[in-house]
Amino acid sequence: MDKNRIKGAVKEAAGTIKETTGKLTGNDRLKAEGAAEKTEGKIQGEIGKAKDAVKDILR
Question: Diameter of the chain by CA atoms?
Fold first, then answer.
């Protein structure tokens, strides 16, 4: 498993927590930061999946 998949999942979870906290407190800035971090995590996870797929093909 590529390290990007793990880091992406952690970043996505942290973004979800920030976004939810922003929604609950009415803090639009925190909500936006959380949404952006969550998206970054998803992208990083997809990069990790692609790297794993390439590694599997080359085996």
Answer: 50
In this predicted structure, what is the pLDDT of residue 1?
Answer: 85
**Count of CB atoms situated within 10 Å of the CB of 56:** 8
Q: How far apart are CA 47 and CA 3, in angstroms?
A: 10
Assign 3-state DSSP to the chain and report helix, strand, coil percentages, each to 5: 90, 0, 10
- Determine whether 45 is exposed, middle or buried from the number of CB atoms within 10 Å of its CB (0-12, 13-18, 19+): buried
| pTM attached to this predicted model | 0.86
Quote the strand ranges of the chain, DSSP E. none
Cα separations in angstroms, 44 against 22, 29, 35, 58, 59? 23, 22, 14, 21, 23
